[in-house]
Write a structure and sequence with these properties.
alpha/beta, TIM Barrel, 13 strands, globular
Length: about 350
């Protein structure tokens, strides 16, 4: 398997340059048949969630391919579904560089990208160019310079734009890298946003003769009381799914690491326990009324199966994919299939 060598070469480069280079080469790699040499397998283990039949329950989390530039390449890695974005109405450069920090001794990454993307129209152009016809989630957010009081407008704009291209739409309210964004997860701000999104979803479903589910992505740093509040809102507004979780502001698990004090969201293995806690809390509050997509800290197949046992119906991978490569996807599918009752 070539992935350890490939990773070694890529990790010799600056983290963000490496990331961009990998994205640029991924579609070509798929054409040349390289994914199999990197450990990719296409495993069929269908599961129906949010009214969608997924080929297998292991997907790509948002953030890796914000602009949908490598959809065909990523689809050849064995994922059951892809999620692209976060995309915003207007293009934005994001936060100053450097803004990605690898912590390999903990299989972790800190990033403070700040929703850098080319804008929703550029994403749609890339989707239209891709040959991929599988399950595609599109993650939407607000521009940094949009006041929270006008955030609903940005989410509505993106929802309308992406509706016809998406299998489902995820609402990013939980990135720690856009000032004030996480406050949209609570109370009246959340209820207001969910109400307008559900109303618009109903209009778009009639316009396009197609119902596209909406999922909300939440943070791993919520208390039990906050999870209960979020769950209540999800049920009230009949949201189709919840993604748990985004990156964390905590530095637990990387104490003493070189980049411990860098600002940004921590992802990878250290987030595993926080993600599991949120999933279990959600499962208890939701009682099956809203399906959960588990993400955060999947570094081996066991971690994916653990999220399913905790109450998730699907899982997503990002940092683990960077560290372990495509074989992690197949390992995760097999581990989930091995669970009792699967």
């Amino acid at each position: 398997m070539l992935y350890p060598l490939t990773r070694s070469l890529m990790f010799g480069l600056d983290a963000e340059n490496s990331h961009n280079l990998a994205l640029k080469g991924m579609n070509l790699a798929a054409v040349l048949g390289l994914p199999k040499l990197l450990g990719a397998e296409k495993l069929y283990a269908p599961v129906e969630v949010m009214g969608i039949k997924f080929p297998n329950p292991v997907g790509l989390a948002a953030g890796l391919d914000k602009d949908g530039a490598a959809i065909d390449g990523l689809s050849s890695m064995g994922f059951g579904f892809l999620e692209v974005g976060t995309v915003t109405p207007k293009s934005q450069v994001g936060n100053p560089k450097p803004r990605i920090f690898r912590i390999p001794e903990h299989s972790a990454i800190i990033n403070r990208m700040g929703f850098n993307n080319a804008g929703v129209d550029a994403l749609l152009e890339n989707i239209d160019k891709a040959r991929f016809n599988g399950i595609l989630g599109i993650n939407i957010g607000k521009n940094k310079d949009t006041p929270n009081e006008q955030a609903n407008d940005d989410y509505l704009y993106c929802l309308r734009k992406v509706y016809s291209r998406a299998s489902y739409i995820s609402i990013n309210l939980s990135s720690p890298n856009t000032p004030g964004l996480r406050t949209l997860q609570f109370g009246e701000a959340l209820n207001s946003l969910l109400e307008v999104l559900k109303n618009e979803q109903a209009k778009q479903a009639i316009l396009h003769d197609k119902y596209v589910p909406i999922a909300v992505k939440i943070a791993p740093d919520l208390t039990e009381e906050e999870v209960a509040m979020v769950a209540g809102s999800l049920k009230t507004y009949e949201i189709d799914g919840v993604i748990a979780t985004n990156t964390t502001l905590s530095r637990q698990g990387i104490e003493g690491a070189k980049f411990q004090h860098e600002a940004g969201g921590l992802s990878g293995a250290p987030v595993r326990n926080q993600s599991i806690r949120i999933i279990r809390n959600l499962a208890q509050e939701l009682q099956g009324s809203v399906p959960i997509i588990g993400v955060g800290g999947i570094s081996e197949g066991f971690d994916a199966a653990e999220k399913i046992e905790a109450g998730a119906s699907l899982v997503q991978i990002y940092s683990g994919f960077i560290y372990k490569g495509p074989s992690l996807i197949a390992d995760s599918v097999r581990a989930i299939q091995s669970l009792p009752g699967r």
